[in-house]
Amino acid sequence: MNFSELNLNESLIEAISYMGFETATPIQEMAIPTILDNHDMVACAQTGTGKTAAFVLPILHQLIQNPSDGTNTLIIVPTRELAIQINQEIQGFSFFASIGSVAIYGGGDGAEFSQQVNALKNGVDIIVATPGRLISHLAMGHGDFSQLQHLILDEADKMLDMGFLDDIERIITHLPKERQTLMFSATMPAKIRLLAKKILNQPVEISLAMSKPADNVVQHICLVYDQQKIPVIHYLLQQRPDYSSILIFTSAKHKVHEIASALRQQKYSVRGISSDLEQDRREEVLREFRSKRTRILVATDVISRGIDIKEINMVINFDVPHDAEDYVHRIGRTARANSEGEAVTLVNGKDMLRMHRIEELIESQVDRITLPAELGETPVWSIKAQPKQRNFRHAPNPARGSSNKTNRKRRD
Predict the structure, then answer these.
(1) Structural domain includes residue 314
(2) Where are the alpha helices (DSSP H) in 94-130?
(3) Element (H, E) at 346
(4) What is the 3-state secondary structure (H, E, C) of 5-46?
């Protein structure tokens, strides 16, 4: 379907054309009319299907038709990278319209904080915020949402995984009860359905290809021993000299520097990014990767959903993610907007069971790459069921739970 068939404002159609988009994706075709009809909605669609435009475009259309004096829309997201990305997309789509937006997240300098306070007190059309920073502002009395008409929760499953449920519920107490609420999620576990039932009013449900990688991602597995991982990455990159944008994911922050350093010794243009970096530094690293001044970016899962960069040729999973759902999010960074991409996962003996569970989730066996003999002998695929842990019904450790939750929130 062409965007002009969705009855969007002409200035939006012009901006969409200017940005190089031609036809709407399935989630956009289904969500945009529903949002324009003012229904609450819970939408489940895989990473890379155009969810951001699915809710940004109808909100912008309504703001153009009926301008607001105060804050009209609040978009809550799990990470600062995603907040920045969505705010940039809003600015792109509203290029030919007079609509203001601001991203609110932690880690900035005093000038950014002052800008956030000003936007919250005086009102801006659209606010994109991480839960932790928004709660901090609300606690200081910053924020007037009396004219709010739209609340959007993006990557709702990730926010709940990161422990933000209480913050979300506290934020909602500051909002008008009469509003349109939209929830977007890559997965739909029971806890998401419970939250939707609690805060949405007779929502329209949309579900597209849940927990499945895009068809245009070519997936491979390399069976390796740990000491072979860097040589195997070197081999893969040598076979693909035309790949100008490669993203490597690891589950551990301490591995980011190790991987980047090892590849730098091989004369590759590589940078690492994790939640340990200061915000300015992270934005600089992403700009260099986006502009292709850096060929390889090594990243952790915490920003896997916050990287929206076109034309990433290849995603390499240095290790298998702990959560099978994260595999879909990781490889969803490539093959975006109907382009093609490749994803390779390095699997050692300990990770074979995890990889097997991923294959069960995506209902497909991932092709194995046969490595050349000079890289050495590789492991043999073998799945051994792990013994079930007995439930001793120990009471949870409040200190540990509180600490983990706090640490997760500090990422924002």
Answers:
(1) yes
(2) 110-122
(3) strand 341-347
(4) HHCCCHHHHHHHHHCCCCECCHHHHHHHHHHHCCCCEEEEEC
Say if residues 40 and 202 touch (Cβ distance below 8 Å). yes
Which pTM does this prediction carry?
0.66
Q: Is the pLDDT of residue 117 over 70?
A: yes
pLDDT band at residue 277 using 50, 70 and 90 as cut-offs: confident
Tell me the pairing of strands 296-300 and 246-250.
parallel
Residue with tokens 């009809």: 37
* DSSP code, position 369: P
The phi and psi torsions of 74 (rounded to 5 degrees) equal -120, 125
CA dihedral 316, 216, 283, 304 (to 10 degrees): -60
Task: Quote the Cα angle for 162-164-165, to 5°.
Answer: 120
Tokens standing for residue 150:
């739209």
Residues 201 and 221 in one domain: no
Cα(75)–Cα(181) distance, integer angstroms: 10
The whole-angstrom separation of Cα 333 and Cα 343 is 9
Identify which of 86, 96, 24 has the alpha carbon closest to the alpha carbon of residue 61.
96
- Dihedral angle sign, alpha carbons of residues 187, 189, 195, 197: positive
In the chain, the amino acid numbered 9 is: N
Q: Are 372 and 66 in contact (CB under 8 A)?
A: no
Domain for residue 399, yes or no? no
pLDDT digits (tens, 9 = 90+) for 161-190: 888 999 999 999 999 999 999 999 877 778
Is it the case that residue 20 has pLDDT exceeding 90? no
Tell me which residue range forms the domain holding 265: 217-375
- Is 401 among the domain residues? no
pLDDT reading at 355 higher than 50: yes
Quote the number of domains for the chain. 2
